[in-house]
Every structure is written in structure tokens, then in C-alpha cells.
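Archive transcription. Copying these from loose printouts into the bound notebook so they stop getting lost. Printout 1 of 2:
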Amino acid sequence: MQRIYISGSIGYDEIMDFPNHFKDYFHPEKLHQINVSFAVDSLAKHLGGCATNIAYALRNTVDYYSRVIPSEEGIQSKIYNAKSSNYSLDSRLLTKGQSPFGRRGNDPSASSGQAIISPVGAVGKDGEQLIEFFKNNNIDTTHILQDKKLY
């Protein structure tokens, strides 16, 4: 059996459903003075992060090809938080809508001292997005490219 190792972040995405169009709330002549707040209909918490998304896509790809080209070997995959093996994830559960966390049901992002950037996003009616990030544990983001002027 071949093994694939995926390295990356594991976290949660909190997605809010905004039932309207964001463009209806922004005035082109006031873009330099943006101050908005939106009421949303729902908030959903989904497992996310780069490693988790890659594992999910890989799992879906393998499932697709295993239907086209049957194999005696299935795919068995686990994702482990680098901090501790206590926070194992079974990626097979990602496609079944079940909690992918191991026997304790713990959130790996809760590990003490771990660097976390928590995104919160709202998705509009046409798929447009507004994303906010909360930095905790004093994460240094000065190295991240920032646009000085968007328009």
C-alpha cells in the first residue's frame, strides 16, 4: 500500500450565510469609508484548513477512481495534528458528515500555545465573500502582503 503524507493546517471555518448581494450595500463613492455590519441567517462550523481540504479532495478523487477502476485495496487515511497524536482525524468521516476527530472528540485548535488564525466569513447570494480573521496567541502577520489601496 502506498502512503501519502499531507502537511498543513487543520482548523475550523465558520461560514455565515448572507441572503442578499453585498454590492447592494456598498456605494462606489464611499469605498474609502467602509463601515458595515451584516445580519446573517445562519452560521455553520466546518472542519477546514489546508491539510484537511487537501485530504478531503484526495479522498473524493480516490473514491471516484475506485468506482471507475475497482481495486482490492481501499484507501485508509488519517490526519494527525503535529502537536499530539491524541487529536487524530479519520478523513473517511469528512465525506460522511460525521465528526472526524478521534475518540475524545477534541478540537485540535484548542491545544495550548498553538498558533491559530481563526477566519470568519460571510458568503453572499452570488458566492461573493467577506472574510475576517481573528489572530490569537500573538501571531505576527507583518510578513503577509497587504494591499495599500484596492481602488
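Printout 2 of 2:
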Amino acid sequence: MGDLEDLTMDGEGTDIDEENGIEPFLTFLPSYILCNSTNYTKLPLCNNNKTVEDSPIFEYAIIVAIVVPIIFGIIVLVGLFGNTLVVIVIIANKQMRSTTNYLIFSLAMADLLFIVFCVPFTASDYILLSWPFGSIWCKAVQYLTYVTAYASVYTLLLLSFDRFLAVVHPIAAITIRTQRNALYSIALSWILILTSCIPLYLCHGIKKQKFEGEVYIHCAFLDKEYNHMAL
């Protein structure tokens, strides 16, 4: 294990298991970098008959580093345009402010938050070998990833219930499906989601490790510090 060192800096998490060797480290360090070290060329994932640059692992990593960010970029452009258009239309037109459209507005906002604060930084994981955005932003990105996912799911649930009332109970829906009730439901769901996801903010952070003289930083779940919260 001579080339792999765990660093503890500013109270951040570490991820080293002397019994399991380098297995935890492989979860974020690209395989082609690991195989470039003479100490780890005998690993099953390394091809000893080829140089790192000629290995399938290296070629695959290069393809992923190019293709995935491009796909994510397309998602960002399309998502920003579509969801921003929905938000503008509902805000600008009073006649569009129905119970259903309020829920669609909430769904669009969740998608926008995900696209702006999560997708670009997830894409950076495929390009950068280290997380350069710091511990606070690491926690924020992980937190918002879960918040926006849950917000989308629960908004779709409210939309389904709204449609159920409109179709199956049209008379009762007149008094239940009001704009005020829709806003209350949306606000309550967001408050519950924002508060219930706080543990996810707390249990994520950066891990710093040294390999071949280079310090690598990654954003991950701090399993040793908060493993009991995942049980």
C-alpha cells in the first residue's frame, strides 16, 4: 500500500480500509490511473500486456469523459429552455394559474433546480479527477439532487390526485381543487422534503487521498462518520 495514503484535512472524511487494501479507493479513482502505477499492474482490471494508453480501460475512460458531458450539456440546454418557458408562461398569464398548472409550475421549478445545480457538477465527475468545488458545495449538490428528485416524485403524485378528483369526483373537486389548496399542498410537500433531506446534506462531504504523490479529492457519502444514519 506504499503509494496510497489517506489524508485527513480540516476534519473531512477519509476512505481507507487496511484489511481490504485499495478497494474503497477504486470507487472513485479512474482505473487507468491505478493501472499506471507499478504497484497495481497485477490487478485483474489491468491488462499487463499493453501500455495504459493502449488499454481498453483507458480508451473507454476517454470516450466516457467526452460523450457523457456532451449528453449532459444537451440535457441542460433542452431542460433550461423547456422548463423556463413553462415558468414564464404560468407567471405571465393569469388565466394559466389553475390548480393543475400550479403543480406543473412546481414540477418545472424542481427540474430547473436539478438542471442548474446538479447536472453540471455531476458531469464534472466524468472530466475532472478531483472535486474542485469544496466541501460546502459538495454537500449542497448531493442535497439538492435528492430534494429535486423527491420534489418531482411528490409533485407528480399530487398531479395524479388532482386528476383523480377531477375525473372520479367532479362535484367534490369543485370545493377541494382550489388554488389555495394547491398552493398549500405544494408548500407543505416542499417543506417536508427540504427538512427530511437535511441528514443527506450532513452525511456527504469530500474525501482526500494521496496516490503516487498526487492528492485526489472526491465528493462522497461519509460512510465511517454517518454509516449509522443509513441503517
